[in-house]
């Protein structure tokens, strides 16, 4: 077949080529996988924060592009793990070992970067797909290639369209305000209190908020304040150029739960996205998270149970 694998740059002609391969080979398999425009594909490849150390591979035969693979080796919460964002081969070119060759190259480069695991899941900075839909051929193929299911999550999506803040939620927010809870966008002066509360949930969350404030275009963070203390937060709240909304984390300090503060924060977050022109919001949550009812009641739609896979990289 004369297979060649080369690096590609997500711009110009290469971008149009990989967009075609994705839409022919991946998008039809599951609603999880969005139909890509060149603009949306470039946005997803750019990563959630900063520029990830990408591995972008294009497979060609007789001068025709027939497959692609994307991975990242950017240190994050698990610096020993590389992330696989995509392996795709055009339907008419399958069963010739092209996907296997692309995966082998991703694995080799991941090992060279010092990684001992290769993961597929929503932790990847490059979110072409947030994980693997279990009903797709790609899931079975990855299992045959040595990947194992590490966990499952729920993947939800909502289109904003004519979404509006429900009247009963507005009453809950007004009631909390009457009790002394102030909902507002955080300022730099709120950062110490925000970081202290964020530390209750994760050691790396405070750094996310610190970096967000330090950035030239810091995204808003919505906080709940009572008695001068930050008791809850959601953010940073981002809306991409293509209209996709996102946030890093939502949480309420343990002693302040059960009063509706988290519910108020989530709806105010959606209201913020709506006002800023977001067209869609995607959310990944643990399958045992009781907040899933809140998300569904707010208008999120369950798309699929999302699988996270991982594979140990031998030497």
Summarize the structure.
With 315 residues, this protein is α+β, with helices and mostly antiparallel strands.
Question: In terms of topology, how is this protein built?
Answer:
Elements: E1 3-7, H1 12-25, H2 38-45, E2 54-61, E3 64-72, E4 81-89, H3 98-112, E5 117-120, H4 137-144, E6 148-159, H5 167-178, E7 181-185, H6 191-198, H7 205-214, E8 222-226, E9 229-235, E10 238-239, E11 244-246, E12 249-252, H8 261-275, E13 280-286, H9 292-297, E14 301-312
Parallel strand pairs: 4-5, 11-13
Antiparallel strand pairs: 1-2, 2-3, 3-4, 5-14, 6-13, 6-14, 7-8, 8-9, 9-12, 10-11
Helix pairs in contact: 5-8, 6-7
Description:
With 315 residues, the chain is of the alpha+beta class. The protein has two domains: 3-153 and 306-312, Aminopeptidase (3-Layer(aba) Sandwich); 161-278, Aminopeptidase (3-Layer(aba) Sandwich), CATH 3.40.630.30. Helices cover 30% and strands 29% of the residues. It has nine helices and 14 strands. The strands form two sheets. A ten-stranded mixed sheet has the order 1-2-3-4-5-14-6-13-11-10, sandwiched between helices. A hairpin with a 2-residue loop joins strand 2 and strand 3. The two termini are 28 Å apart. The model has no long low-confidence stretch (mean pLDDT 91).
